[in-house]
Amino acid sequence: MPFWPIADRTMLTNQVASRRSSSTARSVDADDMALIERVMAQDKGALAALYREYHRRLVRFLGRFTRRDDVIEEVINDTFLIVWQKASEFRGQARVSTWLMGIAYRVTLKALRQGGLSHEPLHGEHDERASEPFADHELADWVAKGLMRLSPEHRLVLELAYVMGHSLEEIAEITTAPVSTVKARMFHARVKLRNVMPGLAGFAGDES
User: Fold this and answer.
1) How far apart are alpha carbons 186 and 195 in whole angstroms?
2) Which CATH number fits domain 5-200: 1.10.1740.10, 3.30.360.10, 3.90.1150.10, 3.40.50.720?
3) Which of 68, 171, 179, 199 could covalently link to 205 via disulfide, CB atoms 3.0 to 4.6 Å apart?
């Protein structure tokens, strides 16, 4: 039996788990919207509450782009500065979490262009940010090595979908790409991952 489907099942398990608590998600969305409305009114306490709620999640996300904690914190601080300055521009067409991730992604791209980040993502077996979504550390390391073989664009869409639980529409919002482009990247990323996983486990595989 080929070993590569395990990676797909692992990712699918994380995706399903992230979607199960829909009522909880709706409650979080309502709470977040209330915080954004307070930020619009220049309530610094509300901004601090958003920061506490999303800091850990943003650290995990940004750890895909750099291993430097100081750069991660700088990007997060810049992200919340933009939230403070532009909260009034939020129209509620996306979830607050998606909006925040999109801002962080664009700040990250700017840092990459300016040379502030290395393009080497953080996927070490001893790093909490990389292994946290998976219960089995050995399997997590295997999947992480497979993801490292993908292009940054392909790796990002898989992690946003299967590790962080975002929908296609949310990924499109975060990456400022059309949904059709996200679908295409997802398809090609899965094909590539299936091809490289057997070789990483010591079995023959097609990496073309």
Assistant:
1) 14
2) 1.10.1740.10
3) 199
Domain ranges of the chain: 5-200
* Closest among 67, 23, 61 to 170, alpha carbons compared: 61
Residue found under tokens 């801002």: 103
| pTM of the entire predicted model | 0.64
Single out the residue of 202, 206, 207 nearest to residue 3, CA to CA.
202
Q: Which of 147, 60, 154 is nearest to 101 (CA)?
A: 60
Q: What is the dihedral of CA 33, 57, 4, 15, to 10 degrees?
A: -20
pLDDT at 3 over 60: no
On average, the pLDDT of the chain sits at 76
